[in-house]
């Protein structure tokens, strides 16, 4: 095995892509002798791990790999991995013949097989058991991310993910617990459980075993000694049953920040999106959570200008935003994606200018909420896990409910839970002083 080969990897997309990139890196280190570089021009292998969820990053892909090809070291290879690899497959090599291999989001475990085979394309979305047998991925020293399922069985009509990541399969709980244990042994105190739809966990195991829910998994993972915080993403509002909400509220290890992807506040649009819940169900779940969990932060994803969205339907989204007062919103303008059901509604597509105006209105409303809300933290004392040291002599970390906090300090605070009295707030983070 030749040593000292260098890998440069660029990752776009969701947290699953981040863990996939960590796994690619770990596999290539272990089996092929690569080390990672942040300088593309010195790399022997350049990988771009792609996202297809909206059109923009896909259209940028070819100009980006074109740039890589121009600037790369002589003889360096280029690989395209991830969701765009899954959905464009060999067309990527047809359009950009200098690409050496294409590896789909469901096929990451095959990285060591394709890396040296010019022209290889692996994009099958059939189940692949070896997906779960990864080298231990390196993570931030204090945080680990562990996949609990692959794929997605929902059929949200706007979404390309089920066709890039395939059928939803739950990874056996013992493997997950073992993976979390390993990370804790390496120093992690926090884990994020990842899946496209985490709270439908347990419906479909690779080994066909019987009943075991996401709530059961949370209970088992929280028994791991040395693990202090559990986060997870993304849960689906439809599957937020009472059992789940009560466990969330009761279990002190579960971080009190929850992602509740609304997508739309209009029951009519939710139906057209095939989300499976109504505006009222969403509001009911959010208010049950708020009632049971003091200091809860709720984040969300909202799509504006889905085909057929009237002004009144959009106002339903604003209404939910006003009622729930989300702590963070990821806003998107609807982007038509190949192979999705919403393409059949092309005749109902909303004028781009209207879509942009709605996006701005939503962002402005949320900004007003945040300005009010973030100021209320001033004067409070918060417990923060310090994770990083900044060049300006500040340290930074997160509260249990995922607020980012900065304070003056040095590296002896790293990895510790510290009480900080908040003195200043911006829309996205807090500043404070260590309480001695
Ligand atoms: N499985 C996750 C989401 C994955 S995609 C979940 O259900 O929460 C992340 C976000 O991208 C989605 O929540 C949605 O808001 C957005 N998104 C997905 N497809 C989109 C499209 N075609 N146009 C615009 N936004 C989209
Ligand atoms: Fe896409 Fe819906 Fe699955 Fe999320 S739940 S990945 S939005 S199909
Ligand atoms: Fe993007 Fe694939 Fe994740 S499309 S959002 S990288 S599942």
UniProtKB/TrEMBL annotation:
<dbReference type="InterPro" id="IPR005839">
    <property type="entry name" value="Methylthiotransferase"/>
</dbReference>
<dbReference type="InterPro" id="IPR006638">
    <property type="entry name" value="Elp3/MiaA/NifB-like_rSAM"/>
</dbReference>
<dbReference type="InterPro" id="IPR002792">
    <property type="entry name" value="TRAM_dom"/>
</dbReference>
<feature type="domain" description="Radical SAM core">
    <location>
        <begin position="138"/>
        <end position="372"/>
    </location>
</feature>
<protein>
    <recommendedName>
        <fullName>tRNA-2-methylthio-N(6)-dimethylallyladenosine synthase</fullName>
        <ecNumber>2.8.4.3</ecNumber>
    </recommendedName>
</protein>
<feature type="domain" description="TRAM">
    <location>
        <begin position="375"/>
        <end position="436"/>
    </location>
</feature>
<feature type="binding site">
    <location>
        <position position="83"/>
    </location>
    <ligand>
        <name>[4Fe-4S] cluster 1</name>
    </ligand>
</feature>
<keyword id="KW-0963">Cytoplasm</keyword>
<dbReference type="InterPro" id="IPR058240">
    <property type="entry name" value="rSAM_sf"/>
</dbReference>
<dbReference type="GO" id="GO:0046872">
    <property type="term" value="F:metal ion binding"/>
</dbReference>
<feature type="binding site">
    <location>
        <position position="51"/>
    </location>
    <ligand>
        <name>[4Fe-4S] cluster 1</name>
    </ligand>
</feature>
<dbReference type="Pfam" id="PF00919">
    <property type="entry name" value="UPF0004"/>
</dbReference>
<comment type="subunit">
    <text>Monomer.</text>
</comment>
<dbReference type="Pfam" id="PF01938">
    <property type="entry name" value="TRAM"/>
</dbReference>
<dbReference type="InterPro" id="IPR020612">
    <property type="entry name" value="Methylthiotransferase_CS"/>
</dbReference>
<feature type="binding site">
    <location>
        <position position="152"/>
    </location>
    <ligand>
        <name>[4Fe-4S] cluster 2</name>
    </ligand>
</feature>
<dbReference type="GO" id="GO:0051539">
    <property type="term" value="F:4 iron, 4 sulfur cluster binding"/>
</dbReference>
<comment type="function">
    <text>Catalyzes the methylthiolation of N6-(dimethylallyl)adenosine (i(6)A), leading to the formation of 2-methylthio-N6-(dimethylallyl)adenosine (ms(2)i(6)A) at position 37 in tRNAs that read codons beginning with uridine.</text>
</comment>
<comment type="similarity">
    <text>Belongs to the methylthiotransferase family. MiaB subfamily.</text>
</comment>
<keyword id="KW-0808">Transferase</keyword>
<feature type="domain" description="MTTase N-terminal">
    <location>
        <begin position="5"/>
        <end position="120"/>
    </location>
</feature>
<dbReference type="InterPro" id="IPR013848">
    <property type="entry name" value="Methylthiotransferase_N"/>
</dbReference>
<keyword id="KW-0949">S-adenosyl-L-methionine</keyword>
<dbReference type="InterPro" id="IPR007197">
    <property type="entry name" value="rSAM"/>
</dbReference>
<feature type="binding site">
    <location>
        <position position="159"/>
    </location>
    <ligand>
        <name>[4Fe-4S] cluster 2</name>
    </ligand>
</feature>
<feature type="binding site">
    <location>
        <position position="14"/>
    </location>
    <ligand>
        <name>[4Fe-4S] cluster 1</name>
    </ligand>
</feature>
<keyword id="KW-0411">Iron-sulfur</keyword>
<dbReference type="GO" id="GO:0005829">
    <property type="term" value="C:cytosol"/>
</dbReference>
<dbReference type="Pfam" id="PF04055">
    <property type="entry name" value="Radical_SAM"/>
</dbReference>
<keyword id="KW-0408">Iron</keyword>
<keyword id="KW-0004">4Fe-4S</keyword>
<dbReference type="InterPro" id="IPR038135">
    <property type="entry name" value="Methylthiotransferase_N_sf"/>
</dbReference>
<keyword id="KW-0819">tRNA processing</keyword>
<dbReference type="InterPro" id="IPR023404">
    <property type="entry name" value="rSAM_horseshoe"/>
</dbReference>
<dbReference type="GO" id="GO:0035597">
    <property type="term" value="F:tRNA-2-methylthio-N(6)-dimethylallyladenosine(37) synthase activity"/>
</dbReference>
<dbReference type="InterPro" id="IPR006463">
    <property type="entry name" value="MiaB_methiolase"/>
</dbReference>
<keyword id="KW-0479">Metal-binding</keyword>
<feature type="binding site">
    <location>
        <position position="156"/>
    </location>
    <ligand>
        <name>[4Fe-4S] cluster 2</name>
    </ligand>
</feature>
């Amino acid at each position: 095995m030749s040593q000292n080969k260098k890998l440069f990897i660029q990752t776009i997309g969701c947290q699953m892509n981040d863990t996939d990139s960590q796994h690619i890196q770990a596999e290539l280190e272990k089996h092929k002798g690569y080390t990672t570089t942040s300088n593309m021009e010195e790399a022997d292998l350049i990988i771009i791990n792609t996202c297809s969820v909206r059109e923009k990053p896909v259209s940028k892909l070819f100009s980006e790999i074109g740039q890589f090809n121009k600037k790369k070291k002589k003889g360096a290879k280029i690989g395209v991995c991830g969701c765009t690899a899954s959905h464009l497959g060999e067309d990527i090599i047809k359009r950009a013949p200098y690409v050496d291999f294409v590896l789909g989001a469901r096929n990451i475990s095959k990285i060591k097989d394709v890396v040296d085979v010019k022209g290889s394309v692996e994009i099958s979305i059939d189940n692949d058991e070896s997906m779960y047998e990864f080298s231990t991925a390196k993570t931030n020293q204090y945080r680990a991310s562990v996949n609990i399922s692959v794929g997605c069985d929902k059929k949200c009509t706007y979404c390309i993910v089920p066709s890039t990541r395939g059928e939803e399969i739950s990874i056996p709980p013992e493997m997950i617990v073992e993976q979390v244990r390993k990370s804790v042994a390496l120093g992690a105190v926090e884990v994020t459980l990842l899946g496209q739809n985490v709270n439908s966990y347990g419906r479909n195991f690779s080994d066909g075993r019987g009943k075991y829910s996401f709530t059961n998994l949370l209970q088992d993972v929280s028994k791991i000694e040395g693990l202090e915080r559990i986060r997870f993403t993304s849960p689906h509002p439809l599957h937020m049953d009472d059992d789940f909400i009560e466990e969330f509220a009761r279990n002190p290890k579960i971080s009190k920040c929850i992602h509740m992807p609304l997508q739309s506040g209009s029951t009519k649009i939710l139906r057209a999106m095939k989300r499976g819940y109504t505006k009222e169900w969403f509001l009911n779940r959010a208010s049950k959570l708020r009632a049971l969990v003091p200091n809860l932060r709720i984040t969300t994803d909202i799509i504006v200008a889905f085909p057929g969205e009237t002004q009144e339907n959009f106002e339903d989204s604003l209404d939910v935003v006003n009622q729930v007062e989300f702590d963070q919103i990821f806003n998107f303008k609807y982007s038509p994606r190949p192979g999705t059901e919403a393409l059949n509604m092309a005749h109902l597509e909303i004028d781009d200018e209207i879509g942009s105006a709605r996006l701005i209105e939503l962002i402005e409303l949320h900004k007003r909420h945040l300005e009010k809300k973030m100021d209320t933290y001033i004067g409070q004392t918060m417990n923060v896990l310090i994770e990083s040291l900044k060049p300006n002599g500040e340290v930074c970390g997160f509260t249990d409910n995922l607020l980012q906090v900065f304070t003056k300090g040095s590296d002896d605070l790293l990895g510790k839970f510290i009480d900080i009295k908040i003195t200043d707030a911006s829309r996205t983070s807090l500043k404070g002083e260590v309480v001695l």
